[in-house]
Design brief:
The protein is α/β, with parallel strands linked by helices. The protein has ten helices and eight strands. The chain folds into two domains: about 170 residues, Rossmann fold (3-Layer(aba) Sandwich), CATH 3.40.50; about 100 residues, GMP Synthetase, Chain A, domain 3. It has a five-stranded parallel beta sheet with strand order 3-2-1-4-5, with helices on both faces. It has a three-stranded mixed beta sheet with strand order 6-7-8, with helices on one face.
């Protein structure tokens, strides 16, 4: 099935729905789903869950993108650091987070009369790796909820994964829909900036979010700041940007802002600030 065939199937999927609640991050995956729901003319609501693990700039982006698409948008707040697996940054944090989030969305959908909750996992992100049929922890939680709710409403649907739409096919479809975020880099949970078994606090997450925004403002499109702690207890900030963007750290025009960035991190408890010469790698804390 070609990319355009999958788009026709996605349109047909939404035309069969009566009412949908879309788990809406404002990224290209959930935005494409929202755009197709809006085009179908059905009752639809985009819901963003605001937690300590999500960048403030992503919440703002979600609101702006929902306005662009023309779909009603709701932000619900949830304290995820109250969940032990997340607070202690355990390997099951994604499973626990996704389960908590979708149980909350299902409850809201049930109370508000929505028949279906839509989630945007795509075929490129569905599995832990390409060689084994092992779902990612968050997707595994979704599959369990989906199975447990078989025959019940509201139900959970994952149309992008079910249609085997890849990230590039989704970006192509978003370009055809003229979505402004069609080429927007993916963002990940702020907990992914820390080693497993690190006890997370709101302050730590906000520090990383602020520092990443400082580098984004200089010109980086893809930015991750990973925190490591050495045997002496000193914190190290390992900065990842796209390899073609590493030059921004050395351009004369950026030096004042780079000095402010370093000073901010040192005030925040980091002893060293380093640039990773391998560049941005998704999941580099899992190596």
């Amino acid at each position: 099935m070609t990319g355009t065939d999958k788009e026709h199937s996605l349109s047909a999927f939404f035309e069969k729905q009566k009412s949908v609640l879309i788990a809406f991050s404002g990224g290209v995956d959930s935005s494409l789903l929202a755009a197709f729901a809006a085009a179908a003319g059905i009752k639809a609501l985009a819901v963003t869950v605001k937690t300590e693990l999500v960048s403030e700039r992503e919440i703002q982006n979600a609101s702006e993108t929902a306005d662009e698409i023309g779909i009603p948008h709701l932000i619900i707040e949830k304290k995820m650091l109250e969940i032990p697996e997340i607070k202690n940054n355990q390997k099951k944090r994604c499973y626990a987070c996704k389960k908590e989030m979708f149980e909350m969305l299902l409850k809201y959908a049930e109370d508000s009369g929505f028949e279906t909750v839509i989630e945007g996992t795509n075929n490129s992100d569905r599995l832990m790796n390409d060689s084994k049929e092992i779902p990612r922890p968050g997707y595994s939680a979704l599959l369990e909820l989906k199975e447990n709710r078989a025959g019940k409403k509201p139900k959970i649907e994952t149309p992008l994964a079910d249609l085997k739409m890849t990230k590039e096919e989704i970006r192509e479809a978003a370009r055809r829909k003229k979505l402004s975020n069609a080429d927007k880099p993916s963002m990940s949970c702020l907990a992914a900036r820390f080693s497993y078994e690190t006890q997370l606090t709101s302050e730590m997450l906000k520090t990383i979010d602020t520092a990443e925004q400082m580098i984004e403002n200089i010109g980086a499109r893809q930015i991750r700041i990973r925190r490591h702690t050495d045997d002496a207890g000193r914190n190290i900030a390992r900065v990842e940007v796209g390899k073609e963007e590493e030059k921004i750290f050395f351009e004369e025009k950026n030096q004042k802002k780079i000095e402010e960035f370093i000073a901010f991190l040192k005030r925040s408890g980091f002893s060293y600030v380093t640039i990773d010469l391998e560049g941005f790698r998704s999941g580099s804390m899992d190596i």
